[in-house]
Amino acid sequence: MNEDNARFCLLAGLILLYLLCGAAIFSALEHPFELRARRLWKQQLDNFTQRYRVNLGALHTLLRQYEEANGAGIRVDVLRPRWDFSGAFYFVGTVVSTIGFGMTTPATIAGKIFLIFYGLIGCAATILFFNLFLERIITMLAYIMRWCHERRLRCAGVGVVSSREESSGEEDSLEGWKPSVYYVMLILGVASVVIACSASTLYSPMENWSYVDSLYFCFVAFSTIGFGDLVSSQRQQYESQEAYRLGNCIFILMGVCCIYSLFNVISIIIKQTLTWIVGKLVCSGRHQSCSCCRPGQKRLKRNTVQPISSHCPAGRHRYMDGSVETVCDSETDAGAVADGVYVGRRLSGEMISVNEFMVSNKVSLALLQKQLSETAHQGPRQSYSHQNGFSGGVGALAIMNNRLQETSVDRLHK
Amino acid sequence: MNEDNARFCLLAGLILLYLLCGAAIFSALEHPFELRARRLWKQQLDNFTQRYRVNLGALHTLLRQYEEANGAGIRVDVLRPRWDFSGAFYFVGTVVSTIGFGMTTPATIAGKIFLIFYGLIGCAATILFFNLFLERIITMLAYIMRWCHERRLRCAGVGVVSSREESSGEEDSLEGWKPSVYYVMLILGVASVVIACSASTLYSPMENWSYVDSLYFCFVAFSTIGFGDLVSSQRQQYESQEAYRLGNCIFILMGVCCIYSLFNVISIIIKQTLTWIVGKLVCSGRHQSCSCCRPGQKRLKRNTVQPISSHCPAGRHRYMDGSVETVCDSETDAGAVADGVYVGRRLSGEMISVNEFMVSNKVSLALLQKQLSETAHQGPRQSYSHQNGFSGGVGALAIMNNRLQETSVDRLHK
Predict the structure, then answer these.
(1) Nearest CA among A185, A16, A4 for reference residue B131
(2) Interface subset of A 192-211, CB within 8 angstroms of B
(3) CA torsion, points A315, A316, A317, A320, in degrees to nearest 10?
(4) Measured between CB atoms, does A412 come within 8 Å of chain B?
(5) Residues in chain B closer than 8 A to A68 (CB atoms)
(6) A-B interface: how many C-beta pairs under 8 angstroms?
(7) Per-residue pLDDT for chain B (414 aa), expressed as one digit of tens each?
(8) Hey, which residues 283-312 in chain B have their CB within 8 Å of chain A?
């Protein structure tokens, strides 16, 4: 079993464990309430049948009919129509985003069959939309963070720069700096919290939910879980209804995009952790037959610095996370980057920087995950990974600069 | 606005259009049924109140109470307990997979708050799991498809090979062949249909659903939409209950993984289409000021073949989708691959091959999307994209061979 498979199995095992723990905790939290609700309902039913001398069987029949009517969106308190245009629009929105509240569901066979084909294209398009959004938000974040860092450098007087912003001197001093995946997670986390809190401030008075309920609804909707126990914008009438519906859509769209990005960033950190655990396990598993477990030797093996590759004259070796990457970005001037920058980078230790992988690459985070795995697995695949072109995907900040310059030039021309 | 942003906006616009069309169609399909259901329920309610002389207000109160009890999972026909361990396990499964049927939802404040934090980690871990699954399934598919192609070649007597499977001669004759994204989509589509049909064959008799209902349930569950109008394994008792519950979990797990992969592959094809549309739009938009719209000249620009890059002696130019990529995979022997292979590849026209990007790269599909966008956008970013290291990620089938050999060597050693 190679390390990729080991990591996959480890993740599956950990998720299973996580599910078991979650099941135990939720069971402990919610089981008493379920029993109480059951007792309460029995009592209410008894009261009703005794008071009105209704046949229990007939009442059960009525309640079953009510359940069926519920499925078609009928409630005692009149709700908005399910299948007028705006209701159907809300419905298809929950389909393509895979939220699926279930407040509205197709009841006819034609509707169900159409849903399958409609959802197939719609969900794929939305996944693409989320991925493109992720790409753009990460590019934007990294650009902003770089700009902030630039300002800080300028204020501190480090890396003296001329008034021309993209001077080569400044590029050099910034080449070593990348935002870490933890910062990006922090920013996305804060953005998610801000959106959820703003949305809750809207929902809480409009829907008469408690603030905690509103927050819970926001998480369930934004994460596309979509239980449907609480669904916004379902009543017949609201104050300034059109504005509320629009706001509801915008909040859900923003929230879903933001939480999707956040999940992806968190998943990178989980992957880093898994890779670390697998590395440890492999080490301890081989501690008699294999020399790699002796820390000094292992470090040495992973850190072996080869002479600058003869295949790629512009290739440079970068220290990162204890492994070596040959960077083959031949469009940057090899001489322009001081070695001190890489030493500085090395000091940042385990903080793998996102920007390194993404900005330069206008890339979805999955690529980042892949790159991280490449980095982590370079030890065993050392024979070729030091020299292959993939590592070229890493750290070519110059490409980002090119791209951004080009982008702004494009804007000027249009 | 650069082309990335243009494509993003185009996608957003198309999704909006898709939603509007979907809303209109669903509205037309389902609205009559809603009205019929509403009339039916009114009639049933009238019958009941007239027959038992029940105060309508009191009955409404009872029905509201029943709605509340419904939220806690109480029905007239006894369902399985919501919050015993197995019920809670099913619940957390629907949370982390973001299916969120909503047949069980936390009712206490503590449960709701815990859900937010639990879901945050759980959903991220599951996204990672799906991505790793995607990576593994694509690697496996490409390996199998390559093996089949190999067999076919051997039977046809093309590319005469020795008995040693990984001889360099065979690698050469297979270098030009990659499975196309359409084949992968087809295989995943067939797998999804097979899983859905098998699952429906199980659900249909066990849950007393019609076969179409079962298929509809499968799609809604596997795509993680999870309306919750139909939920499997909810009754108090089934025949061979434990086996059914296990089978239910396995089918949902397999289905979700498969449909997730399918969505991602479809999203690539959507992205290709978008890129093509944006290209056309840019062309027609610039048809007076810019020369790129004249087909001949544009082709020429995109196809400019540079002399083999002086930065990367092993660099080779590959024709693909009308653009040029410099491949910098210095670990493959540049001389080993005949030029004829590339000509052959070029003849395959617009069929962009998946394997080209992924197998060699043991990579999530998002990377593939990125690579496709790189390919498509090489025109405007020509100044550096011909020489950058990213293109190295493309087409190095030799790396896959290395990886697979290495993998099998690893297995032998363990």
Answers:
(1) A4
(2) none
(3) -110
(4) no
(5) 37
(6) 519
(7) 688 888 999 999 999 999 999 999 999 999 999 999 999 999 999 999 888 888 888 899 999 999 888 888 888 888 888 899 999 999 999 999 999 999 999 999 999 999 999 999 999 999 999 998 988 888 888 888 888 888 988 888 755 444 444 444 444 455 555 677 888 899 999 999 999 999 999 999 999 999 999 999 999 999 999 999 999 999 888 989 999 999 999 999 999 999 999 999 999 899 889 999 999 988 887 765 544 444 444 333 333 333 333 333 333 333 333 333 333 333 333 333 333 333 333 333 333 344 443 433 334 444 444 444 444 443 333 333 333 222 222 222 222 222 222 222 233 333
(8) 309, 311-312
Of B33, B54, B83, the CB nearest to A26: B83
Judged by CB atoms closer than 8 Å, whether chains meet at B15 and A70 is answered as no
Whole-angstrom Cα distance, residue B373 to residue A139? 15
Question: Any chain A CB within 8 A of the CB of B46?
Answer: no
Give the best residue of B20, B21, B30 to mutate against chain A (max A CB count within 10 A). B30
Are the C-beta atoms of residues A112 and B212 closer than 8 Å to each other? yes
CA distance A205 to B221: 33
Cβ atoms of A198 and B197 within 8 Å: the answer is: no
ipTM above 0.90, yes or no: no
Helix or strand run (H / E) with residue B320: strand B316-320
What's the distance, CA A29 to chain centroid? 28
Task: Tell me which amino acid residue A344 is.
Answer: G
| B189 at A interface, C-beta within 8 A | no
Closest CA to B365 of B374, B357, B353, B375: B357
Dist CA B47 CA B52 (whole Å): 9
CA B252 to chain centre: 15
* Contact yes or no for B109 and A40 at CB 8 A: no
Task: For residue A235, give the 3-state DSSP assignment.
Answer: strand
- How far, in whole angstroms, is CA B58 from its chain's centroid? 51
How far apart, in whole angstroms, are the C-alpha atoms of residue B301 and residue B270?
A: 25
The pair phi, psi for residue B79, each rounded to 5°, is: -100, 170
Q: Do B366 and A131 touch (CB under 8 A)?
A: yes
> Tokens representing B278?
């944006």
Closest residue in chain A to residue B86, using alpha carbons only: A23
Report DSSP letters for A268-324, one per residue: HHHHHHHHHHHHHHHHHHTTTT-GGGSHHHHHHHHH--PPSPSS-TT-EEEEETTEE
B-facing residues of A in 7-36 (CB < 8 A) are 7-8, 11-12, 14-15, 18-20, 22-27, 29-31, 33-34
Residues 6+ apart with CB under 8 A from A159: A153, A169, A170, A172, A173, A174
Rounded to two decimals, the pTM is 0.72
C-alpha angle B232-B260-A117 in degrees, rounded to nearest 5: 75
Task: Locate A108 and state its tokens.
Answer: 């006819």
Answer yes or no: are the C-beta atoms of A232 and A200 closer than 8 Å: no
Most B CBs within 10 Å: which of A272, A390, A404, as the mutation test of the B interface? A390
Closest CA to A311 of A379, A383, A386: A386
